[in-house]
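Example (one chain per record):
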Amino acid sequence: MEIVIKELVDKLSENDINNFAKKEGINLKDEECKIIYLYIKNYWQTFYKGDPTTLFSELKEKLEPTTYQKINELYNKYKKK
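Predicted structure:
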């Protein structure tokens, strides 16, 4: 499964993130999209198998409160699957 996720992350674009966010009812600012993109690209393994507590703390400081809340909810929803 990890190989599949790595391949998806390698192909991921900011446009993909923006489209997914819109589908989930999130209107990202350009800067928020860039931040999320960089965190996914650089830390996907921590989000997948590690403890992302520190990463979420950083994101909480960098994103709008409503954006952060929704991303946290989505992470928890998809992490369970």
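Caption: DSSP finds five helices and no strands in the chain.
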